[in-house]
Amino acid sequence: MSNVSLPDAQLVARCRAGDHEAWRELVQRFSRYVYGIAVQAFRLPEHDAEDVFQEVFARAYERLHTLRDDAAVRPWLAQLTRRLCIDRLRAGSHEELADEVEPREADDTLARLDEALSVHEALAGLPEHCREILDRFFARDESYHAIGEALSLPAGTIASRISRCLAKLRVEFEGRNLPPAPS
Amino acid sequence: MTPAHRYDEERLAELLAALPPPPEAWVRAAEELPLARRGLDELVARAEADAEFRQALIADLEAAVAGAGYEPDPLLLAALRERVVRL
């Protein structure tokens, strides 16, 4: 099984065993999530977000062996990022405001980012051409023209391909989130 | 988890857009952490064995790291600084 399709717990176990490729996949898998927490939930400016981003992964790498449940790496990283963002905001605020640095909507934004990451994980179950086109259009905000150039596709076919791939993503996502069958 | 039937195509599109990628350089630096750490272990081992190199690190950490053939990455320097003072 390639690292891309490994469940979180197995990926963490491989990282802990010193598998560099597994570590690269872990960074790829969670980089957008960590970035999103820093810039969307905590509204850090880019240079502070970069420091937090690097510190999150540095600490994760050093402390991966302290994780009690390998499957809980996502909330663990979220908590680590949150703490480092708060530290960063506190360091830059006046002392008397230090307890109120967390934006009020941070919890709502974190919940939305969690949902978004689940949708991104479902992308992994789609064919490569669908993953590519959906990511370029929605997450990277590329134009039809840019996507057509990059993927050697006629620009006139991009919209219909996006629509078909979104429908496939819905099926894939629903398949991953079916309620348990009644016993 | 919220029931899946709430996730129509429009909602999925919004959620895809909610996670843009960070700058590539950030991701690359994080991916290379294990390599940086390997450099760290080698530098610390050399500092333990070689008093002259240890003094060079104490005198000018960045120059000594670069002189030893390693990229003086800020994370590597910070970690090495911590380790060297404990030698």
The portion of residues assigned to helices of chain A is 55-70%
Largest sheet of chain B: none
**Order of helix and strand elements from N to C terminus of chain A:** HHHHHHHH
Give the strand content of chain B.
under 5%
Number of strands of chain B: 0
Structural class of chain A: mainly alpha
Which fold name fills CATH's third level, the topology of the largest domain in chain A?
A: Rna Polymerase Sigma Factor, Chain: A
Helix and strand sequence of chain B:
HHHHHH
Our estimate of the beta-strand percent of chain A is under 5%
Q: Which structural category fits the helices and strands of chain B?
A: mainly alpha
Given this structure, which CATH class of the largest domain in chain A is correct?
A: Mainly Alpha
Q: Specify the oligomeric state.
A: heterodimer
- Overall tally of domains of chain A: 2
Q: What's the CATH superfamily of the largest domain in chain A, by name?
A: RNA polymerase sigma factor, region 2, helix turn helix motif
Taking pLDDT < 50 over at least 5 consecutive residues as the criterion, the unreliable ranges of chain A are none
| Proportion of helical residues of chain B | over 70%
Return the CATH architecture of the largest domain in chain A: Orthogonal Bundle
Task: Give unreliable regions of chain B as ranges.
Answer: none
Largest interface: pair, residues per side: A-B, 45 and 29 residues
